[in-house]
Automatic annotation (TrEMBL):
Subcellular location: Membrane
GO CC term (a single one): membrane
InterPro entries documented for this protein: BC10-like, Glyco_trans_14
Organism in which the protein naturally occurs: Physcomitrium patens (Spreading-leaved earth moss)
One Gene Ontology MF term: glycosyltransferase activity
Protein name: Uncharacterized protein
Amino acid sequence: MNRGQRKVINVVIATSIFWILITRVFYSRSLHDRASISRCVPSVFSSRTDSDISGSSGTLADYRFPEFANDRELHKHAFRKVLDGPGPGSPRIAFLFTVKGPIELEPVWRKFLQGHEELWSLYVHASNPVDYKFPPGSIFEGREIPSKPVARISISLVDAIRRLLAYALADPHYNNAWFVNVCESTVPVRGFPAVYEYLIGSKHSFVEAFLPEEKYQQWDTMPEFPVVQLRKGETWMQMTRKHAIIIVTDTERYAKFAASCSLWCAPDEEYFQTLLHLEDVSGIANRTTMYANWEETRPIPGSPRSYGSSQDLFALFDKIRKMTQETDGLKQESALDKSPSSLRPICKYNGITNATCFLFARKFEAEATSAILHVMSTLPGF
Ligand SMILES: *[C@@H]1O[C@H](CO)[C@@H](O)[C@H](O)[C@H]1NC(C)=O
Ligand SMILES: *[C@@H]1O[C@H](CO)[C@@H](O)[C@H](O)[C@H]1NC(C)=O
């Protein structure tokens, strides 16, 4: 046998074992498994201390997140836990917060989550400082996973999201079925029951994936995959357990994106999207349920519009909730068709067209908190 043949056989064996294990987990345990350049993220910083997870006596769960020597060990741990199947109870939505520190919109999340305690779980990767702890009484208290610094436009944001996925998959207490990636400027635009029903009932993960224009294709992808298979999309995705497992157990595609690339790289907007496009093309919806206003980019150029308290948030939320067509967002960077109907496709849900597109929105400033709380108590279905 030559090297090439051996490699092929090894890949076939590894893939088969992986899928047998996955199938065992999925089909025996839970039906629900059918289931930027980062513009939301931290400025560059470099201080680094190992996080100390002591004293995490959360109000929601007395669970200490185990620590590992490195991410690879964490991912292996997560995979071993995955083989045991998800935790007990009803399928939950795990909200994965990638933040610097405080989540000033917490009152919005608290109101959204209240009364549905059996159906969600929270995980926070707070990275500036890495040992940031939420105060007693916060819904995020004790939910900080061991974290590392995160810098814009780097693989470190991918690492943070993979860490969150791994801890949420490995958590023995919860039956985490869906994984929603959010940051500190994100809020829900619908009530929890509607969000839950939409996600749990979906046959596809909400991962945007379009072929980016050439300047974003500068990764050395061969021999793993041809560059035409490269995909790009919004970092803030919503995915099934199956897709979370694919991401946490991947090593080969990750290595490609962790290697340096020339100028135009946005690993967080390309790694997840490409991996899931390659591994399960028919399992992703090619869109996200996270609204962002890319038509107006202010106050930060290159970043979607940020809303404070001076805007009419009632009208904004009402508009977002009624949208059945995507925003053009990052899709403007698509290398394919740039016609308006391609940039702003009609939203599909389980194959049905003209569906509600959005469950979440960004970006909102802390000062918008009370206005959003008011919208939540006024708009029906919140
Ligand atoms: C997403 O796009 C791919 C083509 O890139 C397509 O094969 C797949 O069916 C699409 N997913 C859905 C749910 O339509
Ligand atoms: C989609 O829904 C909107 C409002 O719900 C409606 O005005 C529009 O005509 C629908 N479009 C199609 C193609 O069905």
